[in-house]
Amino acid sequence: MTKNLIFIENANQVDSIEQYVSKDSIVIAMHPSAGIELSLRGIKFENTTSFFGIDGHTETLEHSKLIVEGLRPFLKQISADGIQQSFEKTWVVYFQINLNFWLSMLFIINKSVEKYNPNNIIIINNSDNKNNSLSEVIKRYGECNDISVQYSKNTRARKLSVKTDNFFLQLAVKLFFEFQLRLFSIIARNRNTLLALSDSHNMPRLIKSITNNFDNSLPIYLGVQKKSLKIRVIELLKGKTFSFLFIPKHIPNYLKTIFLSKYDNCVIEIRSWLEDSNNPAIFYSVNLSNAIMSFTEGELKQRMISLYGEIISLNRILTIVKPKGVFAQHSLGIGYALGEVCYQENIPGLLIDHGSHTPQTALSPSYAWSVHAHTLFNSMYPFVAIQSPWAKKFLKKQDMVVSKSITTGPIIHAKPSLNASLNFEMRCKLFGRKLARKRIILHASSPRQWQTLRPWIYETVDEYIHNINSTIKAVEAIPDLYLCIRFRPKNTLSLKEFEMSLVASDCYGIYAEGSFEEFLMSSDILISYSSTTIEEALQSHIPVLQYDPDGKYQHIQGEVLSSDGINKLSTVYSVLTDNDLKEALKWWKENHNIDINRTLDWTQHVFGDEENEDLVKIMDIKC
Known about the structure:
Elements: E1 4-8, H1 14-17, E2 25-29, H2 32-40, E3 46-47, H3 53-71, H4 85-116, E4 120-124, H5 134-145, E5 148-152, H6 166-188, E6 192-198, H7 203-211, E7 217-223, H8 229-237, E8 242-243, H9 253-275, E9 282-283, E10 286-287, H10 289-297, H11 299-321, E11 325-328, H12 334-345, E12 349-351, H13 363-373, E13 383-386, H14 389-396, E14 404-407, H15 424-431, H16 433-436, E15 439-443, H17 461-476, E16 481-486, H18 495-501, E17 508-511, H19 516-521, E18 525-528, H20 532-539, E19 544-547, E20 559-560, E21 572-575, H21 581-591, H22 594-599, H23 615-622
Parallel strand pairs: 1-2, 1-4, 2-3, 4-5, 6-7, 6-11, 7-8, 11-12, 12-13, 13-14, 15-16, 15-18, 16-17, 18-19, 19-21, 20-21
Antiparallel strand pairs: 9-10
């Protein structure tokens, strides 16, 4: 029998846990950073791929669906100023993310307990975010399953956060907002305004192309990225664009009282539903009702209050700005509210999905993408951009579609450039002349941390690293192939941690900077699990290989390559086991060359010449 089952979330916790490690202990690293530190200290461990897998994705998603859809009817009463859908969809997104964390952690804990039957479970006591912490999940699991839980304090000192007086901060934001509104009236000078939700995801490129067809125009951004703040300020000073740097969340007291009364009524109904003996809030003996209520009455309540405050400010902006056209790249929170107001006030508003949505035949991914689409693609905007045939097919399968479709082609996705893949000089610039002569495989995917897990349709971080390591080993075994790994560093996974998580080899390189379009157009094939990059590659006539060693998911139905089957040429391939990957890449290298690529039929992925950048005129006519 195993004495201790030890869970470590990150590298900072290893010092605090090391004293409990013995020959009869099992250590489970919940994140690659923890695994790296354990390896450096010579401590054996397992990561989550040993416990989650296809069953973890399936059970998490199915149980999450039961709870979310059971609660959804109660959310209809959360409304303000004629806005309802924005609150419901935003509530569901944040609730389900928190719920998925609880369910996935309980699944992993239970699987590890079943395997090792420990006397104790040991975890760092995390009191910073009690409702959404692994220590709290383990505590509840131990109580409900009669397993001793032992807590260790984190010996590494935490950084003290400097708290700013909330009243004065809110006052400063409110005063600056009033200044912005007055400044706008000076800068606008009767110009035609075009309002964009933010300057992320290539929106400035689209806005620039639209203004070329729209006289005397003034682009306005509701939000600005930190990295582009300097550019937007310079444009503002030159009168080229205008940006609202802060959106106040202030609500007059009498309106706040009315709103909270509605929210509290919703909470009462949720509590009553959870108290019913038939509710599905019990998972591996743990009743999640208290955790659900704590999150609903705490963080979610504050999010809804903040959203209402933003909606009040948004209405003031729209009254003064009076946009000729509105453009948004997502529909979450104020992004959804912007579309809902446009729909009600007959303002031409276009939602342009910065993600990728494809129709699915299986129930689990169909549901997951349907819910996800509410934040990106299927919302209350009067119009929605159809950037690919797959997006068109996906939207046709959705319920309650209110937006009118405008076929645009890829207007914020990576721009296709069909001749760029032949540009040898570009390949030399990116990879050097020697590597440029090899067949280039580009890897780009979109993993999710446990705290933002979207089961089934995205990899976990451990799965992401496992799949890349499998790809490295397969590429290494085949001459004249080079793997270009496109990586986006995050606070939760740095470039250094990522590098240390991969197996050593000369057959690949990690590229965290530079234009993605250049890397894409310099590659011979894209390999991914699930990402917008799949459709971006297909738009540029670059074949795609989808790799899921669990065999559960294909973002687009592809030609399945296997070592014992008859493989056929295609624009999209799928490899569904670890064992088939090397032979699949070898077959592709030998059979799918540039000349073959030109003869393939790409029409199921790419529109013809439908793109029309005079979108304001189109929306005005159709509105």
